[in-house]
Amino acid sequence: MMMNAKAYGSWMKTGMDMWLLGAEAASVMALRTARIAAEAAPGRQRPS
Questions:
Q1: DSSP character at residue 42
Q2: Which residue blocks in 1-48 are alpha helix, DSSP H?
Q3: Above 50 in pLDDT, residue 1?
Q4: DSSP SS3 for 44
């Protein structure tokens, strides 16, 4: 028995939403890591 396109599409949309959520979280972590690394760079003064 084959699944109809609507049921498959629902799972596909859910999977894509979860994948995009993971990609967004990874980009946020990368940007925050870069900001922390830039703040800890030698010779950089902290703002008062």
A1: T
A2: 5-39
A3: no
A4: coil
State how far Cα 18 lies from the chain centre. 10
For 6-26, the pLDDT digits (tens) are 666 888 999 999 999 999 999
Largest CA distance in the chain: 68
Distance of CA 8 to the CA centre of its chain: 25
Cβ–Cβ under 8 Å, residues 46 and 39? yes
DSSP 40: T
Contacts of 46 (CB under 8 A, 6+ apart): 39
Residue 14: both structure tokens together:
């859910």
Q: What angle do CA 6, 22, 5 make, to 5 degrees?
A: 10
Q: What angle do CA 14, 18, 24 make, to 5 degrees?
A: 145
